[in-house]
């Protein structure tokens, strides 16, 4: 059973544009909703995270929007830069087992 | 240390040989996680530890995989009798506590190639 569905699989955006990545989940035990960024040859690194008691969180050019009733959350990258080219993973975490449940990843390419 | 340290970075094994990977979590972190990343993207959870105790092993293929986190030693993940399908990047991660809001930090991974 796939608990986390992430879309799109890949996207190409022009420099300065907006990248939007979506994540839908099924497990109602998830209570922490992070996005991880991974560059080739590196481990994933936490980019931004949200708790379910807020609907939006913004850190610089990165924003998470969270819809608890729809069991969806999304990552918005504003003013995309070539350095943002990476693979992004949603990875909600459960309150009972603490492990991250990764989405399939979205490869973002920002064209200069 | 301030980062999760994994060794070796690359490992090549013939089918049927043993592979052993090591992980030193961030100092002071009591939770350790092992993940397998295949096909460039897909992450599979293998096992987690709370200090030296197995916390969750629901992802472990127990017949060939084993893992340990002993006091004052790096954690290890061992694969007996490797198969071609074990070729993947194995990531170790650690967090200070098990509380959901605690950031999980990843190492740079160990790339296992089974030939």
Describe the structure.
The complex is a heterodimer of chains A (112) and B (115). Chain A is globular and about 45 Å long. Chain A is mainly beta. Chain A is 0% helix and 54% strand. The relative contact order of chain A is 0.34. Chain A is built from no helices and eleven strands. The model of chain A has no long low-confidence stretch (mean pLDDT 95). The mean pLDDT of chain B is 94. Chain B has no helices and eleven strands. With 115 residues, chain B is an all-beta fold. Chain B is globular and about 40 Å long. In chain B, strand 5 (42-50) and strand 6 (53-56) form a beta hairpin.
Radius of gyration of chain A: 13 Å
Kindly estimate the percentage of residues of chain A that lie in beta strands according to DSSP.
over 45%
Question: How many individual β-strands of chain A?
Answer: 11
Helix content of chain A: under 10%
Backbone structural class of chain A:
mainly beta
Unreliable runs of chain A? none
Structural class of chain B: mainly beta
Task: Return the average pLDDT of chain A rounded to an integer.
Answer: 95
Work out the helix count of chain B.
0
Portion of residues in helices of chain B?
under 10%
Number of separate strands of chain B: 11
Compact description:
The complex is a heterodimer of chains A (112) and B (115). Chain A is an all-beta fold.
How is the secondary structure organized here?
The complex is a heterodimer of chains A (112) and B (115).
Chain A lengths: L3 E4 L2 E5 L4 E7 L4 E9 L6 E6 L5 E4 L2 E6 L4 E6 L8 E5 L2 E2 L11 E6 L1
Parallel strand pairs in A: 2-11
Antiparallel strand pairs in A: 1-3, 3-8, 4-5, 4-9, 4-10, 6-7, 7-8, 9-11
Chain B lengths: L4 E3 L2 E4 L5 E6 L6 E8 L3 E9 L2 E4 L8 E4 L6 E5 L8 E8 L9 E2 L3 E5 L1
Parallel strand pairs in B: 2-11
Antiparallel strand pairs in B: 1-3, 3-8, 4-5, 4-9, 5-6, 7-8, 9-10, 9-11
